TrEMBL record:
Region (Disordered) residue spans: 1-21, 83-114
Organism: Steroidobacter flavus
Biased composition (Polar residues): 102-114
All residue ranges annotated as the FecR protein domain in the record: 199-291
InterPro entries (UniProt xref): FecR, Ferrdict_sens_TM, RNA_pol_sigma-70_dom, RNA_pol_sigma70_r2, RNA_pol_sigma70_r4, RNA_pol_sigma_r2, RNA_pol_sigma_r3/r4-like, WH-like_DNA-bd_sf
PANTHER family the UniProt entry points to: PERIPLASMIC SIGNAL SENSOR AND SIGMA FACTOR ACTIVATOR FECR-RELATED (PTHR30273), PROTEIN FECR (PTHR30273:SF2)
Transcription recorded as keyword: yes
Any matching Pfam family: Sigma70_r4
Domain of life according to the entry: Bacteria
Domain RNA polymerase sigma-70 region span(s) in chain numbering: 27-92, 126-172
Sorted UniProt keywords: DNA-binding, Sigma factor, Transcription, Transcription regulation
UniProt cross-references to SUPFAM superfamilies, sorted A to Z: Sigma2 domain of RNA polymerase sigma factors, Sigma3 and sigma4 domains of RNA polymerase sigma factors
Name the UniProt record assigns to this protein: Sigma-70 family RNA polymerase sigma factor
Amino acid sequence: MPKSPAPDEPTSDSNDARPPKSVLEIFSELRPDFERRLTRQLGSREDAEDVLQNVSIALLKVEKKHQTIQNPRAFVYRTVRNAATDHRRKRRTRENGEGQFAQEQPQSTPENAASDALNAQQTLQAFEQVPPEEYQAISLRFSDDLTHDEVGFEMGISRNRAAKLVRSAVKIVKKGLKILVCLCAVWLGSSSNQGENHTLKADAGEWRHLTLTDGSTIQAMPRTTLKQSATPAERHVRLIEGEATFKVAKDSKRPFIVETYNMRAEAVGTEFSVQVSDHDSVVIVMEGTVKVSRIGSTPEPETFSDVLVSAGQEVRVSAMEPLEIKDVDLPRKLDWSQGWLNSQGETIGEVADQFNRRNRLQILIDDPQLAQRRTGLYRLRIDDPESFVKLLSDQEGVIVTREGNRIHVRLE
């Protein structure tokens, strides 16, 4: 069943005889209205600005690829809606501290582990009976912990319709199980704790290293928070923010899984890096192969497809783009582990985003045209965002203003 348009979301541009505007032009016109709405919905003007900055970056990428968009205005609304939903999900994960590990699990025994596995299998079978629309609603409600209002916002339907879909799904699942079940992600129900549970947090300018009992290692870069746990069936990491490299000890019976708010990466014995930001997650593979899947919101069903990423490749997972594998220069991409950021023609917006991931001081490129401008060849200290701001301020027509721990950069 197709989604209904969100409130106030236009359904067609076909009656407009004028030449079609680009998505960036439409976004610039609507940005003041989006800022007012998001400030009211998110409760903070700073959060609203963060969401709109991410939307601007996403739309820039779309324009660079010259994608054909049938309804650009509706596309902009959908991009803003998905970005706001991702922002809520990520903020809730941070507030919960442990994200989806928030509920402490009791000490596991072999008997408990077997019982958990049976319950998980029964739950999975029950969920297979739920129609697609109800399944999406119940997943957003319980797996992502969204309210009915937020489920409606995410799906582009009314709150009452969202609540009705959730109730319908609950009835189907209860009937399938013939018991009251805990409506939460299946992996959470089966993730019994075997005693190996770690929280790893690296502050700005700090690198952290963790060796697991199976011999796997995790190297976390500055401004990174993650949770790690192990069960008889799998090894699991929840990357809440930042970036980390995982060197996985081979164990074909226990896959190594890394999840962010919008992505799942699964490996057996390999080495790969995962970065997470408000608008996307990036997986870079140094050795072996990693299966990457999208989770959470997506505009089109076909973009849920899994991809296999091999050594020397990366894949970027965002709300509005299909999963696309690219070849990368590994030494340059991973120079962050030595404290450096290499720029070789990326856009100003992309380089600013790299600094923002790693430092308390945030660089906000307020002008979309400036954000799209290409940089030169730079090698800068990753913990020194001021060095990049200095390079920008030296460019003709660039204005830099400061507001607390935020630096705003725009064109005259």
